[in-house]
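Sat 14:20. Reprocessing the chain from the morning session after the first attempt stalled halfway. Input below, unchanged.
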Amino acid sequence: RLRRGDYSRDSLDQALRLAAEFPEMVNVRFLAGSLLLYHQQAEPARAHLEWVATHDPRNAMALANLGQAYLSLGRLREAADRFRAAQALDPANAVAAAGIRALGLK
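Finished this time. Tokens:
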């Protein structure tokens, strides 16, 4: 579904079921967190993405999405830290760059 660009509620539900069934799989937790963020559920997204960032600290996209979750929650310092960490790992990361701009940082 996701390869076809299907970010529907059904895809989210499927990702959450997989995350519950396979809680130690980084890619499943990343997918669940990212879809939760897409569906504007920042707090549960934060929980999944923090787990991913802890278990895969070089995952720039997870850090950037975690920054977005923090930004949505009004946790601006934490958002800035995650955006900067993502950009340090991947200078071309568009999510991190947009987050840094949104915070008025350089």
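The first helix runs from residue 9 to 21.
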